């Protein structure tokens, strides 16, 4: 039977007595609050990390599929502006043309930055094939399976560094969770299964009672951590890629195809305009 709020209020110094007859320790409710806050924070961090992986994967697909089209549009815009500037001999037209061309100038490491789609000499054959709707090697897809998601959540809950109360244990957990996050980012259920077996064979977490001042400090740290995660989640959601992903969470490929179709239409328009100027 649970004591009502009115009954709890009787006697300012009254303490609840558990069924066993002994008075509850002063830190017990605080410990329960800390454990609840830790559990809630871990669940929140799992959700944020899951969304971060989805955003990064979608960003990779976005760049591989649409990057060449954006590059082609910029090149066409620069050439159109250069022809117009040459014809008008207007300083303002020349300035706009120079700025457009400067944005396309090669920079060190451009091949790595463009993921093998172009270099200082222009688009690679695969990029050209994509722009002309010819068959092209599909971009690598990294979408964790339901099994991988489940394994990741279980490991994050069990091995989260926030559950450690000693520096040595925290360091062990941080190293392990780094490997868990990397396996999840690769979408490897097999690696996650191996990590789950490794964790199960390792030492168990030993919890010891904490003094009240340490518990209060822990609650404060958990609150600050939650604020940081909330900011990270907001930044992910409000980013260009995050906003796009939220438009079609169940069919991101379809969204990319729609955008690709729009870009192909724009490329065709620019090419027609450039051809007309060159006649």
Automatic annotation (TrEMBL):
CDD domains: DnaJ. Residues 1-30 are annotated as: Disordered. InterPro entries: DnaJ_domain, J_dom_sf. This is J domain-containing protein. It comes from Streptomyces cellulosae.
């Amino acid at each position: 039977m649970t004591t009502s709020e009115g009954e709890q209020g009787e006697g300012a110094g009254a303490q609840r007595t558990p069924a066993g007859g002994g008075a509850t320790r002063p830190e017990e409710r605080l410990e329960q609050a800390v454990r609840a806050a830790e559990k809630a924070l871990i669940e929140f961090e799992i959700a944020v990390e899951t969304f971060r992986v989805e955003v990064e994967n979608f960003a990779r697909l976005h760049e591989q599929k649409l990057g060449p089209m954006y590059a082609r549009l910029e090149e066409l815009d620069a050439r159109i502006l250069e022809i117009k500037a040459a014809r008008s001999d207007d300083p303002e037209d020349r300035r706009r043309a120079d700025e457009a061309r400067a944005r396309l100038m090669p920079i060190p490491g451009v091949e790595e930055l463009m993921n093998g789609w172009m270099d200082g000499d222009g688009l690679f054959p695969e990029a050209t094939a994509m722009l002309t709707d010819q068959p092209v090697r599909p971009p690598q897809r990294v979408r964790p399976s339901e099994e991988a998601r489940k394994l990741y959540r279980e490991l994050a809950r069990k091995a989260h560094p926030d559950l450690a109360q000693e520096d040595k244990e925290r360091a062990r957990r941080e190293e392990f969770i780094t490997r868990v996050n990397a396996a999840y980012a690769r979408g490897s259920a097999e690696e996650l299964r191996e990590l789950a077996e490794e964790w199960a064979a390792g030492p168990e977490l030993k919890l010891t009672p904490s003094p009240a001042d340490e518990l209060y400090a822990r609650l404060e740290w958990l609150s600050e951590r939650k604020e940081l995660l909330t900011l990270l989640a907001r930044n992910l959601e409000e980013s260009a890629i995050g906003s796009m992903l939220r438009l079609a969470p169940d069919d991101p490929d379809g969204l990319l195809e729609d955008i690709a179709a729009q870009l192909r239409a724009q490329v065709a328009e620019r090419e027609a305009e450039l051809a007309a100027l060159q006649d």
